[in-house]
Amino acid sequence: MEITLHSPLDMHLHVRQDAMLDLVAPLTAQHFAGAVIMPNLLPPVDTVERLHWYTSEVRRATSGYAFEPFMTLFFRDYSHEELLAARDHIIGIKLYPAGATTNSDAGVREVLAMDHVFGMMQELGIPLLVHGETHGFVMDREAEFCEVYRELATRYPRLRITMEHITTAKAVSLLDEFENLRATVTPHHLIITLDDVAGGLLNPHLFCKPIAKRPEDRQALLEASLKAHPKLMLGSDSAPHPRHAKEAPGCAAGVFTAPIILPMLAELFVRHGAEQNLQAFVSDNARRLYGVNPPATTVRLANDPMQIPASYGQVVPMWAGRSLSWSVKEVTC
Ligand code: NCD
Ligand code: ZN
Ligand code: ZN
Questions:
Q1: Whole-model pTM?
Q2: Number of domains present in the structure of the chain
Q3: Which atom of ligand 1 is nearest to the CA of 252?
Q4: How far apart are the first and last CA of the chain?
Q5: CA-nearest residue, atom 10 of ligand 1
Q6: pLDDT in tens, the chain (333 residues)
Q7: Which domain, by its residues, includes 215?
Q8: Nearest residue CA, atom 11 of ligand 1?
Q9: Is the CB of 212 under 6 A from ligand 1?
Q10: How many C-beta neighbours within 10 Å does residue 76 have?
Q11: Does the beta carbon of 245 lie inside 6 Å of ligand 1?
C-alpha cells in the first residue's frame, strides 16, 4: 500500500540556531514543503532586524530543498510601526506566557493586558499564535487557559487565533464555538498519554509542554485529527534538545519528531482507516486557514518498515531504536 501527499506542512516547528539548526532543519525540509518557525531563541526573535537574520539562517540551512519557512515574531509590546514593518515577512506573532515553556522568560505576564497590541494585529490582519497554558496545576493549565482563548476570541472577532499544540478535549471543543479560533496538534499527543511519560519508568524523551494528558483527551484529539477537522492542522512541535539536557535532572521540555512525523501519521491514519483524510490534515487545512501557497512537492510513503535511529547527532528522537511500519520512499518537486 502507498500514500501520496502533496506539499505537507508542519505548522509548528522549532529549528533553533547554529549547529542545531544545521542538524535539524534539513530533517524537516527533506519531507515538508514548509513549516512555521518558532521564535523562542535566546534572545527571542522580537525585532524586524533579528527576524531578517533568522529568516536568512533558516533559508541557508534548508537551501537545496523545496521548502518555505513561515516566520514568526515573539510577542511583546510592539508599536504600530514595528508591526507594519514585520507584517509582510511573518505568518503570525507567537505569544508565550512568561515562564510557561522552553526559552519563554521574555514572555507575557498578563495576557489580557496586551489589548492594544491585539487590536493592532487585528487591524493589520496578523494572526496570533498562542502557547496556551496558565501557571496553575500542570494537568489543568491548558483547560484553565481556555478562558483566555474565549476572551480573546470574543474581544477580537476578526483576529485569527491559533491555539498551538492542543492537548485537551476542552480545547478541541472550542474550535466549533468560535469562528476565529483554529489549532495545531502534534503527532505525539495523538499517540501518548501521561502514562507513557511517567506511568512507568520516566521517559524524558516524551516530556514536553503541554504535558501529555488523559486517555479521553487523546481520544478527542485523535477523533478530530482522523476526520481532518477543518480548523485543525498538523503542527509537530518537534523541539530538539541535546541528549545531556534531556537525560538529566531538570529535563528540558520538548519531543524531537521531525524525521519520523509522516511515517508515524501514515501508520496512525491507516490503522484507523482514515488515510483519505491525511492530505487535509497535513496540508490542505493549513493552506486554507493561513492562505499560504507552499512549493509544490509530492511525498510518496509506503508500508515498508523504517528503523528509528538511536540519535541524530546529539538529539534523541521519540521512539529511538523502535521501528515504524511506514516510511518515506520518494520526494519530488
Ligand atoms: C518547546 C521548545 O523546546 O522550544 N518545548 C516544548 O516542550 N514544547 C517550546 C514549546 O513549544 O512550548
Ligand atoms: Zn509551546
Ligand atoms: Zn513549540
A1: 0.98
A2: 1
A3: 3
A4: 22
A5: 101
A6: 999 999 999 999 999 999 999 999 999 999 999 999 999 999 999 999 999 999 999 999 999 999 999 999 999 999 999 999 999 999 999 999 999 999 999 999 999 899 999 999 999 999 999 999 999 999 999 999 999 999 999 999 999 999 999 999 999 999 999 999 999 999 999 999 999 999 999 999 999 999 999 999 999 999 999 999 999 999 999 999 999 999 999 999 999 999 999 999 999 999 999 999 999 999 999 999 999 999 999 999 999 999 999 999 999 999 999 999 999 999 999
A7: 2-332
A8: 237
A9: no
A10: 16
A11: no
Mutual angle of helices 18-29 and 48-61, in 10-degree steps? 60
Closest ligand (CA of 102): 1
Can you tell me which residue has the cell 521531525?
258
| C-alpha of residue 193 to centroid of ligand 3, in Å | 18
Could you tell me the CATH number of the domain that includes residue 115? Answer: 3.20.20.140
Amino acid sitting at position 328: V
Q: 173-182 in b/e burial notation, b at 16+ Cβ within 10 A?
A: ebbeebebbb
